[in-house]
Specification:
The protein has 154 residues and is mainly α. The chain has two domains: 98 residues, Rna Polymerase Sigma Factor, Chain: A (Orthogonal Bundle); 36 residues, no CATH class. Helix 1 crosses helix 2, helix 2 packs antiparallel against helix 3 and helix 3 crosses helix 4. The radius of gyration is 29 Å and the shape is elongated.
């Protein structure tokens, strides 16, 4: 990566419409900014779209960059990060049918809670008296009188 001073010079050149400076700026910073965006979005296709929008914004607002307020990479990373966060917020309103990764098959092995539920036996659910012991006896006042395990020991 270029030094901060070189990045400041490139951004100043981009503010004047220098396309060659923009290409150098892009080549020097694209990996870092893509990493920032991908970490937030977790989807390469969305990250690529946000990076394109980020560099359009950098091109159009390069004249507003003030090196006294922040370093060049911090300024560019904040543009990328803010745009990625906007996409996350907007996608929060998307239905599950529109989210391709949501339609993928679940993991091969069940999560710990599912394994626990699958390991329950009939004796965990039914007591020797034939009554369900899955729920603790409740008094009329709503207080628990005993647990299923303690009621089986009696």
């Amino acid at each position: 990566m270029l030094t901060p001073a070189e990045l400041v010079w490139l951004i100043a050149a981009v503010a004047k419409g220098d396309e060659a400076a923009f290409e150098r700026l892009y080549a020097a910073t694209r990996a870092k900014l893509f990493g920032v965006v991908l970490r937030i979005l977790r989807r390469q296709d969305l990250a690529e779209e946000v990076i394109q929008e980020t560099y359009v914004k950098i091109w159009s607002s390069a004249g507003q960059f003030n090196p006294a307020l922040s370093s060049p990479i911090t300024w560019m990373a904040s543009i990328a990060r803010n745009r990625a966060i906007d996409v996350v917020r907007k996608r929060g309103e998307v239905s599950i049918e529109e989210e391709p990764s949501a339609m993928e098959v679940a993991a091969e092995s069940p999560d710990p809670l599912a394994r626990r539920e699958m390991s329950w036996s009939a004796s965990d659910v039914w007591s020797p008296t034939g009554k369900s012991s899955c729920c603790w006896p409740i008094t009329m006042a709503g207080a628990v009188t005993s647990s299923p395990q303690s009621s089986r020991r009696r």
